[in-house]
Automatic annotation (TrEMBL):
One of its GO terms (molecular function) is copper ion binding. It holds the Pfam family UVR. InterPro entries: UVR_dom, UVR_dom_sf, YacH. Residues 138-173 form the UVR domain. One of its GO terms (biological process) is stress response to copper ion. This is Excinuclease ABC subunit B. It comes from Clostridium chromiireducens.
Length: 194
């Protein structure tokens, strides 16, 4: 796909914004991304919010370029999804993956890009306000258990013991919290029955 601004170079960056319910999308080459001053919907967006979009895009591109150089480009070009058969060149051209297995097969390409765009590579999602604390604690408990298993495999028993103690504290806290919630629920039910 060619850059929508200059019409000469391959478009490597897809900018999508949704403002007032309207979706705006533009494909740009690396050179045009560095000079985004003449893209109308980006100008209006930048005026509405004080956000250094130019700096962010330049940083993203420099991060992806530096990550590319550390990976053998020939190996990247040979990547093909084991399930759907999507090639790296097709992915690069369309910017879209073909199936869920593409994430595993293109991991060497996707992970550095995702890391440059957000805090991590694990999707955490939004946490509801009502049950949020409970979900966070359960997720933390799961992560601690996984960490302890890895430490045991690596024979780091002292650190595994520390993590085990954290797990016990967290499980006890969750249990006490559940018991308190059950007591409150039974009190509410008794009050309703009276």
């Amino acid at each position: 796909m060619l850059c929508e601004k200059c019409g000469k170079n391959d478009a490597k960056v897809n900018l999508i914004t949704v403002m007032n319910g309207q979706k705006h999308e533009v494909w740009l080459c690396e050179n045009c991304v560095k000079d985004i001053a003449n893209i109308p919907f980006l100008n209006s967006m930048a005026q509405n919010i004080n956000f250094p979009l130019q700096g962010m895009l330049t940083e993203m591109l420099s991060n992806t370029e530096s990550n590319k150089s550390s990976i053998d480009n020939n190996k990247i070009k040979e990547i093909v999804c084991s399930s759907c058969g999507l090639t790296y060149n097709e992915f690069k051209r369309s910017g879209k993956l073909g199936c869920s297995d593409c994430y595993k097969d293109f991991k060497v390409v996707l992970e550095p890009r995702i890391k440059s765009l957000q805090a991590g590579v694990k999707h955490v999602g939004k946490i509801p306000k009502v049950k949020g604390r409970e979900l966070v604690q359960k997720r933390r408990l799961k992560d601690l258990k996984e960490e302890m298993q890895k430490l045991i495999i690596d024979e780091e028993y002292e650190r595994a013991a520390i993590v085990r103690d954290e797990i016990k504290k967290l499980e006890l806290y969750i249990l006490e919290r559940n018991n308190a919630a059950n007591v409150l629920q039974s009190v509410k039910e008794e009050n309703c029955n009276e």
